[in-house]
Prior knowledge:
- This protein has 25 helices and 12 strands.
- Helix 5 links the parallel strand 2 (90-94) and strand 3.
- By secondary structure, it is of the alpha/beta class.
- The chain starts with a helix and ends with a strand.
- It is globular and about 70 Å long.
- The model is unreliable at 363-420 and 508-542 (pLDDT under 50).
- It has 4 domains: 19-175, 3-Layer(aba) Sandwich (Rossmann fold); 181-238, Helicase, Ruva Protein, domain 3 (Orthogonal Bundle); 247-410, Zinc Finger, Delta Prime, domain 3 (Up-down Bundle), CATH 1.20.272.10; 427-505, DnaA, N-terminal domain (GMP Synthetase, Chain A, domain 3), CATH 3.30.300.180.
- The structure holds zinc ion.
- Zinc ion is lined by residues 62-64, 72-73, 75-76, 78-79.
Amino acid sequence: MSTLxxxxxxKLWSEVVGQNHIKLTLQREIETGRLAHxxxxxxxxxxxxxxxxxxxxxSVNCIKxxxxxxxxxxxxxxCREITEGHSIDVLEIDAASxxxxxxxxxxxxxxxxxxxxxxxxxxFIIDEVHMLSTGAFNAxxxxxxxxxAYVIFILATTELQKLPETIISRCQRFDFKKVNIEDxxxxxxxxxxxxxxxxxxxVLEQIxxxxxxxxxxxxxxxxxxxxxxxxxxxxxxxxxxxxxxxxSAVAKILEFITQKNLKDALIFLNNLVEEGxxxxxxxEDIIELSRLILLTKLSNELGKxxxxxxxxxxxxxxxFAKIFSVPQLMKIIETFxxxxxxxxxxxxxxxxxxxxxxxxIPETLSPIAIVEATFTxxxxxxxxxxxxxxxxxxxxxxxLETKKEEKKIEKPIxxxxxxPTGAPLSFDKIKEKWDHFLKKVQEYNHSLPLILxxxxxxxxxxxxxxxxxKYAFHQDKLSELKMRSLAEKAMTEVLGETAFIEVVLxxxxxxxIVQIATEPVAPSTDTLVNDLAAAFGGQVxx
Length: 542
Ligand SMILES: [Zn+2]
């Protein structure tokens, strides 16, 4: 979902989040009028390369910009045309698309020979420039060697190493950094306020962690949460879109390991599973946090390597760095890496993580490990004492198993026929009753309607209603016996005849539609393309 990203794309330099060093340098060049003619923006996707490229194009061409300042007015014809993506002199080309590669000669090289039509500068923004063919690079190189005074090239790439050295050396180069957590959270808060949606800070932090420093991804996730249509979003609502895991849970697990508390560690893990934690993400987070602790042990500076480290997390990292030894951390990372491979295939989802804990906790009990971890005299004496008896995992596991058994017995046995038989349902009737169905479901369950509102009926197979969902996570959730039974119950009541539910995952891997603005595009076509792109989950570039 790119709508929020498009809607809130910064229109002024002061609105840009992160990339401070780049922002300041570019602004100074614009203010002094000493502008390079070729820029190279490199860095991962969704962190502001195109946004800054457009700002450069806007500032240099703004008719009303006061000399010695860099902010564009945002109102003159030139500013508006660039914002709307149909300026005749600002050409945006996506080299990753076939069209981009084919058109490079005519749309760039030939066009660069002519003066700008309406503006002071002709600006070429070439995205994913590393995708150009050798022929296209050679043609581009010639132009870059002696660029006309009225031309500015802004090349952007996610894979700098694939660019010919000859191209790199002719550009002023900027390496874009991932945006840090605090900046992303601040930005998301601004958007939520603008949209008049109340949202927990914790949720915003989770989005920021998940998006790994990519602002566009963060705004995309926020958009998915907003599309549930809820005005107040807590962790509970967000968990439907955002598979849960956060560093506080991870820190807790590491703490159990330091305390050699296998029993509570296993109970804690099982509680997380009940709450619907994403086990793969949790495992990755355990590995990542252990890695950061290990790096901090080796050098204080290294621990800050991750974009995700804020003050609070840094404190946790320092705390653990004092407790764990290097071999212990290596063992933790190895164990979780090994068990991560089994996660998808395990029929008891949390079993691999339980195995990891059982492997690790006796290990930390060994007297040698304790001595390595801390060097206080009282603990060094441990070495001379007989080795403590290892806690065996058996009683704990069987205790947990008994708990589960009891739970199972309490639950009434639910019977669901898996094969839809009987006269087929009417799809028209289902579509007609869909809103009624959503209301009915609301009576039974709080979270189910939120998922269903983001889904739609797509067909009928016998007595089964096929419901299409957008996210694999929703498919899993709806396929859970409890959720499916509720949905089937509601559907049966609404239709007045027995109905089953089949959940299918929608394909949103649509091609990105590329628009090269060689000619002014009428707004109506623009809207049509936008609508089309939105319907196929793509986005319009240009
Ligand atoms: Zn302007």
